[in-house]
Write a structure and sequence with these properties.
Blueprint: H1 3-7, H2 12-22, H3 30-43, H4 45-64, H5 69-73, H6 79-91, H7 98-124, H8 131-140, H9 157-169, H10 177-190, H11 192-211, H12 215-220, H13 225-234, H14 244-260, H15 268-283
Helix pairs in contact: 2-3, 2-4, 3-4, 3-10, 4-6, 4-7, 6-7, 6-8, 9-10, 9-11, 10-11, 11-13, 11-14, 13-14, 13-15, 14-15
């Protein structure tokens, strides 16, 4: 179903929220966002309310502060809130303080995103990606209990196939292959080229983790999701169609650095890899990577 056909039956507020979910995967497509939302609801229902609350917090903050409507509708002020809502719901036990904390974190991420769009992106063409989520999460995780050790997963054909899908789901802390399948379908609907690159990236991440004897990380999808995001970030390039490949490789190479310095990995390797590649292109005087935030095409990925 074309995005513009779906949009005719979707109120503005719902479109903005759904775009916020699809923006996690660098797409502007409400149906893709709906499938991401279903992935959370069906495979991790305890995280659903937090994700929705984070998205609403980002959108309402943007509306209240009168940020550009085109950016709001594109979901640019919601996707970091979704990720923060997921993280807080996952790492912190339920208490009456949790919903206000999610609202505050989601609202803060929208304000940080606006400042980035205003002062950094438009002058240097360096997208924020999920950096507001990562920085705020690093601060919040200082107050969280240590996470449980990674569960052992048996190496077999079924688990290898499931791991390919888990590389999609782990972007949103979802370790169930059904979540990855729903997200993959959403990407296929939104942009077939992006879907193909993401599928390849997940396979490369899986293979890399297995080569480094990180079996549990490989089979849980934790070794793949940053590569998936890096591939998606560059999948729309026409002048340099090969650009997702160095993005994938660089994201995998820098991943161990964050554990080495004691920081949660989250989506930081993807961000660093993309920033380095974009900075390198600019320094070498190459043609700037094409795309503008909030373009009105059917499914132009946002440079966030």
């Amino acid at each position: 179903m074309p995005a513009n056909h779906f949009n005719t039956h979707c109120p503005d507020w719902a479109e903005a929220l759904l775009n916020g979910f699809s923006q996690i995967f660098l797409q502007r497509h409400p149906l893709c966002g709906l499938l991401c939302l279903l992935a959370i609801l069906l495979t991790a229902p305890v995280l659903f309310a937090g994700a929705l609350l984070g998205a609403v917090a980002g959108l309402l903050t943007a509306q209240r502060r009168n940020y550009a409507k085109a950016d709001r509708q594109a979901g640019l002020f919601s996707y970091n809130g979704v990720l923060l809502g997921l993280l807080l719901s996952l790492y912190f036990p339920w208490s009456p303080m949790l919903p206000p904390l999610i609202l505050a974190a989601g609202g803060l991420s929208a304000m940080v995103t606006q400042q980035w769009l205003k002062h950094v992106y438009r002058s240097r063409s360096i997208p924020a990606y999920t950096s507001p989520f990562v920085v705020i999460s690093w601060l919040l995780l200082l107050f969280a209990e240590p996470s449980a050790p990674m569960a052992h997963i048996e190496m077999n054909t079924l688990n290898l196939l499931a791991a390919e899908l888990k590389g999609f789901g782990q972007v949103m802390f979802l370790g169930h292959p059904l979540a990855g399948a729903l997200i993959a379908i959403g990407l296929l609907i939104a942009d077939r080229r992006a879907f193909c690159w993401a599928l390849l990236a997940s396979a490369i991440g899986l293979g890399s983790s297995l080569l480094h004897h990180e079996t549990s990380a490989a089979l849980s999808g934790l070794g793949s999701y940053n590569a998936v995001l890096a591939a998606l970030a560059f999948s729309s390039q026409r002048q340099q169609p090969w650009l997702p490949l160095p993005g994938i490789v660089l994201a995998l190479l820098v991943t161990p650095l964050f554990a080495a310095i004691g920081l949660a990995t989250l989506t930081a390797p993807f961000i660093l890899a993309c920033w380095l590649i974009r900075a390198g292109i600019q320094m070498l005087g190459k043609t700037a990577v094409d795309g503008t935030p909030c373009a009105q095409g059917e499914n132009q990925p946002r440079l966030r």
